[in-house]
Specification:
This protein is of the alpha/beta class. Helix content is 44%, strand content 16%. It has helices at residues 3-21, 40-48, 59-72, 89-95, 105-118, 141-154, 172-185, 199-204, 214-217, and strands at 30-34, 53-56, 77-80, 98-102, 123-128, 159-164, 190-192, 209-212. An eight-stranded parallel beta sheet has the order 7-6-5-4-3-2-1-8. α2 links the parallel β1 (30-34) and β2. α4 crosses α5 (105-118). It starts with a helix and ends in a 10-residue tail after the last helix. The mean pLDDT is 96. The chain binds pyridoxal-5'-phosphate (PLP). Pyridoxal-5'-phosphate binds next to β8 and α9. Pyridoxal-5'-phosphate is lined by residues 34, 36, 57, 81-82, 165, 195-196, 211-215.
């Protein structure tokens, strides 16, 4: 077995154990393998091990890596998990099967426009800034209900769930529980929460999607430092 297949088996086992401990069906949790910064060869390793769902945080990086992989594995499902600029909405709709980072009306409007134009309807998650961190993307909790209503009624965006990235220095369980409550209140079935350090906690609290990078691919190369 490849190292990637080994890690995939281990993470999948942890997800299944956490799900069963919470009386949940492991099949109700989707592992999104976050391949950002890693090359297509690493993605292929997991595809060959049977995995199909991947996440990238930048449109441009995904465009360089995934068109060939999607051609070779037509059932590959690609999720955008990073901030999206309005002027990249067309590229995002063309390439991604799920957009997890919808967080403002201008973006919702741009996405539906491109969905109509391209006749493709990627499922959308609304990103919530549960920690109310100024530097972080996401809609504030107090604005969420009105935003969900606008996405549904005004834009007819195919919204399926909520996504969050808790502050690094806070107990993630509090944020996961808050996200679950907000999703239930808005009648949204999907919850994208939990990363390498806390995906088991997220599964116990109802995650339907966990976004796991380093636990599957190893440490990422450090980001270039900008002067
Ligand atoms: C990079 C990233 C992840 C994965 O992080 P790991 O800690 O490596 O598992 C999850 N979600 C988002 C939004 C990311 O940018």
């Amino acid at each position: 077995m490849s190292a990637g297949a080994d890690r995939l088996a281990e993470v999948s086992r942890h997800i299944a154990e956490a799900a069963r401990a919470a009386n949940r069906n492991p099949a109700d949790v989707t592992l999104v393998a976050v391949s950002k910064t890693h090359g297509a060869d690493r993605v292929r390793e997991l595809l060959e091990a049977g995995h199909r769902v991947f996440g990238e945080n930048r449109v441009q990086e995904a465009q360089g890596k995934f068109p060939d992989l999607k051609a070779a594995w037509p059932d590959l499902e690609l999720h955008l998990i990073g901030p999206l600029q309005t002027n990249k909405a067309r590229d995002a709709v063309a390439l991604f099967d799920v957009v997890q980072s919808v967080d403002r009306e201008k973006l919702a409007a741009a996405l539906v426009k491109e969905m109509d134009r391209l006749d493709r309807r990627p499922a959308c998650f609304i990103q919530v800034n549960t920690g109310e961190e100024p530097q972080k993307a996401g809609i504030l909790p107090k604005d969420l209900d009105a935003f969900v209503a606008a996405c549904r009624n005004q834009y007819q965006l195919p919204v399926v769930g909520l996504m969050c990235i808790p502050p690094v220095d806070e107990e993630p369980a509090l944020h996961f529980a808050l996200l679950a409550k907000m999703a239930a209140r808005n009648g949204l079935a999907k919850l994208s929460m939990g990363m390498s350090a806390d995906y088991e906690t997220a599964v116990r609290l109802g995650a339907t999607h966990v976004r796991v990078g380093s636990a599957l691919f190893g440490a990422r190369p450090p980001l270039p430092v900008h002067a």
